[in-house]
Design a protein that fits this description.
The chain is an all-alpha fold. It has helices at 2-27, 39-62, 69-79. The model has no long low-confidence stretch (mean pLDDT 78).
């Protein structure tokens, strides 16, 4: 039963990844060299993303769901996409 719940959560995560990748492909033409983040911006973004991810994992575990290292890594990878940082010409 726990495997079914994990499978369902990973399947939902896979759907979110596919949606994000499609959105990134659609927005690829908006990317420009001026859109690159500075080291401090990247560090700040990482800290915000990591804090949000840790909160989501803590909430899932508080509800009795075990979050494996693999699931944590996949969520970190998914959260690393930044579809909001685009440059306009």
């Amino acid at each position: 039963m726990e495997n079914d719940a994990l499978h369902d959560r990973l399947a939902a995560l896979g759907t979110r990844i596919e949606t994000a990748e499609a959105k990134l492909r659609e927005q690829a033409h908006w990317r420009h060299d001026a859109a690159h983040l500075t080291a401090n911006e990247l560090k700040d973004r990482y800290e915000r993303v990591q804090a949000r991810l840790n909160g989501e994992i803590a909430e899932a575990e508080a509800h009795g769901h075990h979050v494996s290292d693999l699931e944590r890594s996949v969520q970190q990878w998914f959260e690393s996409f930044d579809s909001t940082h685009v440059a306009s010409n």
